[in-house]
Amino acid sequence: MAVYFDHRIEAPESSGAPIQITWHSALPVLAVASGNHAVGYIVDLYLQQGEYVENCHVQRPHHPTVLRWHPTKPVLALGWENGEVMLLTHPSGDQAVLPTLHTACITLLEWSSSGSRLVTGDLIGVLGVWKVDARGRLQGNHLVKHDYNKPLTCCIFRPASPGDDVKMLARASVSGDESALDMFSWKGAPLKMGPQEGLAFYVSTADGKVHSVDEHCKTSPLLSVEGSIKKLFYIEKRETLAVITETLMLSQYTLGPEGGAQVFMEVKLSSRSGDNVDIVWTENSLLITATGEPIIRLWDLERDDNYVLSLDETLGFERKEVINCVSYCAGKEILAAGTSCGRIAMWRMVVLPGSNRGDARTQWKLQTPTEIEGNFTQLQWGSSLNLLAANNSQTVLILWEHVMSAHFSQQVAAVQLTPTQLSIAQFNSGVHLALQSDMHIKGVCVTKDSVTIWNCKQVTVYELSGTVLRNTGSFSCDSHVVAVHDENLYTVEPNRVQIRTPQGTVKQLLTFSKAEGNPVLLSVCQSYLVVGTDTAHIRVFDLSRRDAKAHCSAKNLADQITNLGALRSVKCNANGSQVSILISQVNGRPDHKVYFYDVEMDTVTHFDFFTGRPSSGISQPEESEKQQLQGTELSGRCPVSHFWDESEPRLFVCETVPVGSESSSNSYLDMADVLVVTLFSTQEHGLLLQDCYPKPSGLQSLLALDVPYYYFSCKPGEKDPGSTEVSSPSHQTKLSKGPQFPQMVSRRPLRDFVGLENCEKATRDAMLNFSFYLTIGDMDEAFKSIKLIKSKAVWENMARMCVKTRRMDVARVCLGNMGNARAAKALKEAETEPEPEAQVAMLAIQLGMLEDAEKLYKCCQRYDLLNNFYQASGQWQLALETAESHDRIHLRTTYYNYAKYLESMGDKTLALVYYEKSDTHRVEVPRMLQDDTSSLAIYVNKMKDKNIYKWWAQYLESQSDMDSALHFYECAQDYLSLVRVHCYMGNIQKASEIANDTGDRAASYHLARHYEGHDDIKQAVHFYTRAQAYNNAIRLCKENGLDDQLMNLALLSNPEDMMEAACYYEEKGTHMDRAVSLYHKAGYVSKALELAFATQQFSALQLIAEDLDENSDPALLARCSDFFITHSQYEKAVELLVAAKKYHQALELCVTQNLTITEDLAEQMTVTDSKDLSEEARKELLEKIADCCMRQGNYHLATKKYTQAGNKLKAMRALLKSGDTEKIVFFANVCRQKELFIMAANYLQSLDWRKNPEILKTIIGFYTKGRALDLLAGFYEACAQVEIDDYQNYEKALDALTEAAKCLSKSKDASTGQQEVRLADLQHKVALIKKFVHIRRLYSDDAVEAVRLCESLLEEPQLDPAVRIGDAFGFLVEHHCQQGNLKVAYHKLEELQKLLPSQNVRYYISQASLDALQKEMGLPMGYSDRRHSVKEEDEVEEDLNVS
What is d(CA 37, CA 1084) in angstroms, rounded to the nearest whole number? Predict the structure, then answer.
């Protein structure tokens, strides 16, 4: 809570009425222009408390029109009516007149953002731009002059944007570029930051035009509007320009990069026409106007929203009071408005929990007004101190905010009401006093006998005696803080604390060294004084003796606390063993820790409210650590004030707010989310959380803790319904005449002392010890501390405490001592609930703590129990909301219970609604309205519900109103009741029509019973059939011989009825086919077959056999199969034999009758269950099936069965017969048996392996895997022969024969002699081929030697088939033809013809050589035209005729 001290400026007597006021933006200097035509005009400067600055006095005969302060330097620019512009410097008073440029009235003066440019403009449109140096002095003549020929109205500078290189570096730094980050950290070269000051500006004229002037002072037209321009604003976030005209037309323009402007919004601002309008623009794009109305209007241009703020008469404003002027303080987020009745209204922006600053409509809170006098015409916030200057046309007042002083000690509390008034409360005597001082009170300190006030210049002491306050002393002292103990006053001055008498006499000095610093903080608790200095040192003094003695040496907290900037507050406990400290960090922000200095141990610990945990030591028990009172959490907070209990040294209390709100001036005092946290602090157990208490609404801030109460200051004008206030208002007294003051202090009992506020000291100490031991979890000591207490009130209070601490074990003991059996029983039953909170909630209910129970149920989300709680406590609306939102499973039950409640209260109309919502209205509403038949009839006709129609029809039938009953039965579509009533009334025909038309089974059954009773069997059977009561219809047919209908009815009915009908036919001996069919349909297949065989019903037997399967009786299946074999239906017989598991007989039948075994049939005969056949029998069966498949040519199926039988050899043979090469290869690879590999390789040799290399590889691989090296050698020989015969490729043939020799040498054949002969033969062939290959290769180098070797080769014995003779002769013929020795060639050809008379020479000799021989030798050769060699074995070749 804050008040505003007002200081009237100390204006000279010669000055007239103030005309204009303006603050410097940073310095606490106010410029005031005043005067009139008679005495002349003056401009003076004043300091923050209105002190007149004599040196800075300017007087002119002309009217001062514009005053503008330099943005950083103490230089004021003054514009006069005659066109003169001058610069006034504070505090020297130097005056510098600008060179003459203007001859008309100055209308605008504007500084650039850093003050290096000054723009001046006059009424005839002349604009000048001046350059100013860094000290605020003018540099030469004007830089430029522009003439716009129209009066200039407004000027604003455009802010400079960061350089492009900075933007790029920022993006790179965020992306992780270390070099860019280094440049930002100034580790590299200096950055090119671009222009640091925006030198471009916009200027407007009275004819509605806006001109743009760039950095080089070049002007260009920008835009034009209708009417004179009143205000210009630049919206930096959007880079847009806002223009307001004299008619309050608001236009917004987007500014293009090339200098153009495009309008995107135009709106007319609301106002009273003709009145003066005060317009304020804020940095967050808020436009505020005051137009002489009781309201101010706000336009949020960023969010396109608008709203109004009005005065509140309950805070002291008058009905006809209007607002003349407004001003906004961004630092304090306060909007001030001056009214016509001398009041200053202030709205503070309050950030509500869960909202943001954009929702400003709900965030402006009107404060108690500051009342002065006069009619305010101008308000302005200014300076870094956020001072407010107010002009009421008579004088100027300077207001500065002061947090209202308050203090509590020794059951006396003092709270400041106004700058000069105090409210004093004595809680021991119940006396309430009011003190009015003649000075502005900046601080107050009370004891049980005195009240001390001061204002940093003077200290005044009042003696408090009963209902009388007596001034006992007043003296001058500039101490900003004062403490009092007994008859001593403690004041501060540099490097010492003075101990004074109430009259100001210094009794003792407590000196501080230069290192210890200057004392700035004082606090007294019991007989101990703690002093905090500006160098973060603390000292504790013992005041119990005549002179103050040091209790401990000075402690430098900077050595213990990191990031310490300054001390904010220090307090000591009752025995001087602990000192609590609040600090500010180096950056000026409040720290979110409370520090504790243990004097005896010389250690510093802390409790961190950001994490909600202490620093070290023994932590609190888990139950206490987890506790969350009233749905709030302890973490994420910051302490703002702290106190020790005045008598209990262990008990500490701290006021906390959410992090982020503690730095917003004093706005946290208006927040709802303020927690009062109580801790126990001891050496043994460290810091222990004892309680967490939300500050009640209506209370301002915490004043003190004095067991059993918390003491709070109250908000002015707000009533606190839950307070425990000081009574006896008749004792109110004040020292000066004036109004009666409200009670400003409220006390609330601690959690542990609710109901024990007036207990004696022994009980109070026992409760404190109990609470302490309960907090540390020492239950034995806790019960020891209270074992002698017999009061039920104390035990009940401790039980209530258990609700807060959630200690159910303690609660049981408390309930036992209270003798509350009902609560103990309820607590026992609640133990079945899995959530501890639900159990605690039941305890809270039994103790009458309904709010706590409600919050506990919400905390554990047991909305079902919360719903029951609301219902039991009569809070039906909350119960309904809970059921609808969270407990929908019990929604209908809740509706029903509420309806029952309403019915019991006589509200049948609303009860009817909730019966309908609960879907129980069909029963409950007729019951509720049964005594009011007229209302019930109306309700029935209104609802049009079939169930209700039926109930109403039954009621009418009971009243013998049959016609009405029939009508409502028909509406309810209750056809049974319709038929029943018609039968009762004898309308059988109508009943039959209803039953036939609707097909209702119940109605048809009732009508059938009626016909049966009247012996109308045909109709009875008909309606029994429609009712699907076939057993009744069958019964009537059997009794009355209706055999034809009996069959149809039996087929429609269940198997039991079919069985009965079949027995009936069998006993009767007629229609045996029907009996067989019915037995079959009923599932008695064996009975049906016996009857069919007995009566030779072959067609029926055929139908029955189709339904037989493996689950049927095997004997029955065999009998049926014999029947089908007899009648040559072999396929069906085989199926039945297989179903009967007579596989051998089925197989024999397939063989004898040549039946094709399909894959399905083969699978059916494949036995998988070892119970049916042994493994050997099973394999034998499978082989027989496979043999049969082989005979039928189904080789694949045969392979499958052979494989299943385990006979892979036969499986491979079957597969070889199928000729499926792919499956053969696959099967051989899968089985991996030598025999199968050899068989597969033998098979593959029969294929065209010469053209398919894959087959060739597979053959070699299979022989290798099968270890048939002799066969592999034979295959290699075959390959070699193919290479020789087909391709004459002796090189490959040599390779193949070499491999064959290797294989043969490795082979382990039984016939070793044959193997050696074969190997020798192979080696001989290899030697011959090697010679021939050598001859061929040698020919290119030495043809003669090659020919000689070839001729010698022909003489080798057994040359052929190793080397074909034709190839050797061909080699020689080719050689001689190439050499031109055609005769020799011819002789060689003749020798070849003689040796191979049946061979075609074309195999060995090229066509070119044959052509040459024919041409040279003149031989007729009839086949010389054939160009291609013959490849097929059966082709007839012509012999070469040699003559």
Answer: 132
CA triple 33-35-36, angle to 5 deg: 135
Task: Express each pLDDT in 1230-1274 by its tens digit.
Answer: 777 777 777 777 777 676 666 677 777 777 777 777 777 777 777
Do the beta carbons of residue 137 and residue 70 sit within 8 Å?
Answer: no
The answer to whether the bond into 91 is cis (omega within 30° of 0) is yes
Quote the CA–CA distance of 453 and 450 in Å, as a whole number: 10
Strands 745-749 and 709-714: antiparallel
Q: The tokens 């200290």 sit on which residue? A: 459
* 354, pLDDT greater than 60: no
The predicted model gives 710-729 an average pLDDT of 63
Convert the pLDDT of each residue in 216-259 to its tens digit. Answer: 889 999 999 998 999 999 888 888 899 999 888 899 999 887 77
pLDDT for res 1419: 54
Instruction: Tell how strand 209-213 and strand 201-205 pair up.
Output: antiparallel
- Contact call for residues 1409 and 1374 (beta carbons, < 8 A): yes
List, in sequence order, every residue forming a beta bridge with 67; answer none if it has no partner. Answer: 78
Q: What are the phi and psi torsion angles at 682 (to 5°)?
A: -135, 160
At 120-141, the pLDDT tens digits run 999 999 999 999 988 888 888 8
CA atoms within 13 A on the CB side of 828: 9
Burial class (CB in 10 A: 0-12, 13-18, 19+), 1174: exposed
Structure tokens at 282: 């804020």
Q: Measure Cα distances from 583 to 442, 593, 612, 992 in Å.
A: 22, 8, 18, 98
CB of 1301 within 8 A of CB of 1326?
Answer: yes
The sheet with strand 675-682 has its strands ordered as 637-644, 651-658, 675-682, 686-694
| Residue reference for tokens 């029907």 | 1074
Tokens of 1002: 């119940």
Cα–Cα distance measured from residue 1009 to residue 986, given in angstroms and rounded to the nearest whole number: 14
Q: Can you name the residues that pair with 279 across neighbouring β-strands?
A: 289
**What is the per-residue pLDDT across 819-876, written as a single tens digit (0 to 9) for each?**
888 888 888 888 888 898 988 899 888 888 888 888 989 989 999 999 999 999 999 9
**With bands split at pLDDT 50, 70 and 90, how would you rate the model's confidence at 66?**
very high
Distance CA 1180, CA 295 (A): 111
Give the DSSP H/E element, type plus range, for residue 1074: helix 1072-1081
Helix (H) or strand (E) holding 714: strand 709-714
Residues 6+ apart with CB under 8 A from 1188: 1147, 1150, 1151, 1157
1365-1379 and 1382-1395 are packed helices; what angle lies between their axes, rounded to 10 degrees? 170
Q: What is the pLDDT of residue 618?
A: 41
The two structure tokens encoding residue 633: 């959490």
The lowest-confidence range among 180-194, 269-283, 626-640, 1306-1320 is 180-194
Q: With CA atoms as reference, report the closest residue to 953 among 967, 932, 943.
A: 967
CA distance 1256 to 1253: 5
* Band (1335; pLDDT cuts 50, 70, 90): confident
> How far is the CA of 1203 from the CAs of 325, 1165, 1200, 1215, 1320, in angstroms?
108, 15, 5, 11, 43
CA-based R_g, the chain, Å: 59
Measured distance CA(1198)–CA(1179) in Å, rounded: 13
Mean pLDDT score of the chain: 80
Sort 1363 into a burial class: Cβ within 10 Å, 0-12 / 13-18 / 19+. Answer: buried
What crossing angle do the helices spanning 1085-1094 and 1114-1126 adopt, rounded to 10°?
40
Q: How far apart are CA 215 and CA 159, in angstroms?
A: 12
Q: Is the dihedral of CA 771, 776, 781, 782 positive or negative?
A: positive
pLDDT for res 22: 94
Residue 108's closest CA among 72, 62, 37, 157?
Answer: 157
In sequence order, what are the residues at sequence separation of 6 or more whose Cβ sits closer than 8 angstroms to the Cβ of residue 1226?
Answer: none
